[in-house]
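Think of the structure tokens as a kind of shorthand, similar to the way a musician reads notation: each symbol stands for something richer, in this case the local conformation of the backbone. In the example below we present two proteins back to back. Begin with the first one, reading the sequence and then the tokens, and try to describe in your own words what changes along the chain.
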Amino acid sequence: MSTTSHHDERIATMTFASVYPHYVTKVEKKDRTKEELHQVIEWLTGYTEIQLHKLIEDKVTFETFFKNATLNPNAHLVKGVICGYRIEDIENTLTKQVRFLDKLVDELAKGRKIEKILRVEK
């Protein structure tokens, strides 16, 4: 299932600050910590906790959030279905990156081990 241009535009203009509290709530409801959430976000984007707080304070859009991120070289290993979309089939780069983040948060909330979420090879 491919995304529409309207869907991609809506994601691009959405602020990270508007979604972040939902990520926190989702993981904490499942007895995971904000620190683990930050670890997952840092793995994907390279942003430290201090940088994350600044991005939230500045109310940056997802477009700016990912434009300035240093995406993990193993991000392509994040696969599966999230929000009804198969990540591997999403053509829009930004939408795919946002769905990478959504999928990692979902895996954390579902109790997956951090090593698996961060695609650490043994």
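Once you have a description of the first chain, move to the second and do the same.
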Amino acid sequence: MVDKNEIEGGAKEAGGKLKEAAGKAVGNERMEADGKVDQAEGKTQKNYGKVKDAVRDQTS
């Protein structure tokens, strides 16, 4: 079963990629940096969900 953190993290990571690309396209360095931060947060949340799933699988 996929943990909700994996889904939410993946969505945040994807949104961050879009935000970074938009920032590059319009020359907005702040938006580009925010997109990179969102990607890192999303990746962390997604990995947390994967670990949580692995632990749940091991204890079941």
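Compare your description with these statements about the second chain. The CA atoms of residues 26 and 32 lie 9 Å apart.
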